[in-house]
Amino acid sequence: MVIVASLPGELLSKIFDYIDSIAQLAACRLVCRGWNYLAERSMFGKEIRIKSEKQAIQVYTHLCRNPFNGNLIKSMHLEGIGKKEIPPIFEYLMDIAFTPTMEELTGLVYTKKFFNILVSIAERYSLEFVNLKRIPKYAHDNDGYMSARTLKQLQASALSIDIQPFSYAETLNWKVIKLLDKFKYLRSLELKGEIDTWSIVDPVLKKCHTLETLTFYGLHIGDFETSTDRQEVHSWVIIHKVIKEFSLKAIEFKSSVFSPPLIEYLMYKYPNVTKFTVTRRYLHLAFEELQRIMDSIKRVQYKELTFILQYDVSMWEAIAFAEFCSDKVEFHTDSSDVIMKIS
After folding, report:
1. Pairing mode of beta strands 213-217, 250-254
2. What highest taxon heads this organism's lineage (predicted)?
């Protein structure tokens, strides 16, 4: 008979990592001394949500017993930070929990002092915070400048920005865009917002020379220029001296509108893309326009485009597209929706 306590520590750690509930992991710690340390490590590897000063004190007290566990924290969400003053416990907690291994620190803060605290902590480390992808939003900063500036100071590797944070804005979000070329280690960029035309992304992307992943999230193109043909796009990139970047490997569209001209521009600028994905989105293109996109990403090694076909989409046209498309096209249903997947 195999005794559970005899399992190797590495295997136990893997098992604990699959347990999502922090309460269950806490129960595992009580089983025996051998499980206590391993379950504790897995607990700190989960997202830690702090909703009050009381919870902040509990986590801080726990970390004080073994400050090294602060290095295990990768994701933390903060609530209950005062609107006028930061409760001292949050400063003490950040002093232990905010380390170069942190990947996400989320929440909403009301004072700039919090960002100054993060920067001052980071200055004590010789390592850059290159794993950091997200920090709390500043409540009085709709364009995301404070968070972006702080991420730049921390030399983070990921950034999410609204190209035009206000629907009535006539110009791009230059306060944030001007920071882009100051990121030494920027590997991942997420663009959101509403733009007038596909070409607006160029002044944004021309400032990024180290990207490996580019994501469009909830992007909306105002005039939806599908009328621009392939030759016009090619002429545009030549006239505007678009610089090719060879580090980018993956492009993803999440619930975003996109057009053939935008995709053709991206394929020109990033010739080394090996992964192109579109997550579930209502198909907003005619099938000939979709085929134009498939032609432009033909060289991409891995591609996966998933669309919901609305009631006004002709299934006959969809089937005809599938027959002539050189890529694999599959149809299936999900509840009342018809899903088309191209890979």
Report:
1. parallel
2. Eukaryota
Coil, helix or strand at residue 131: coil
- The dihedrals phi and psi of 180, each to the nearest 5 degrees, come to -60, -45
CA distances from 330 to 51, 120, 178, 343 (A): 45, 53, 43, 8
Is residue 144 within 8 A of residue 162, CB to CB? The reply is yes
Sketch the domain layout of the chain as residue ranges. 1-46, 47-125
Residue carrying the six token digits 């391993």: 38
Residues 6+ apart with CB under 8 A from 255: 217, 218, 279, 280, 281
Residue with tokens 């500043």: 138
Collect all residues with Cβ–Cβ distance below 8 Å to 126 and sequence separation of at least 6. none
Pairwise CA distance, residues 145 & 134, whole Å: 13
- Cα–Cα dist 225/17, whole Å: 47
CB atoms within 10 A of CB 250: 18
Structure tokens at 298: 């033909």
Element (H, E) at 91: helix 88-97
Query: What does pTM read for this prediction?
Result: 0.81
Closest by CA position to 184, among listed 106, 117, 130, 112: 130
Q: Residue 127: left (phi > 0), alpha (psi -120 to 50), or beta?
A: beta
Q: What string of pLDDT tens digits covers the 343 residues of the chain?
A: 445 556 666 666 666 665 666 666 666 665 666 666 666 676 777 788 888 899 999 889 988 988 888 888 989 999 868 777 888 999 999 999 999 999 999 998 888 899 999 999 999 998 889 889 889 988 887 778 888 999 998 989 999 888 875 554 556 788 888 899 999 889 999 998 877 788 889 999 999 999 999 999 988 776 555 568 889 999 999 999 999 999 999 999 998 888 889 999 999 999 999 999 998 777 777 888 889 999 999 999 999 999 888 887 888 888 888 898 899 999 988 888 888 999 9
User: Are 268 and 201 in contact, with CB atoms under 8 Å apart?
Assistant: no
Distance of CA 298 to the CA centre of its chain: 25
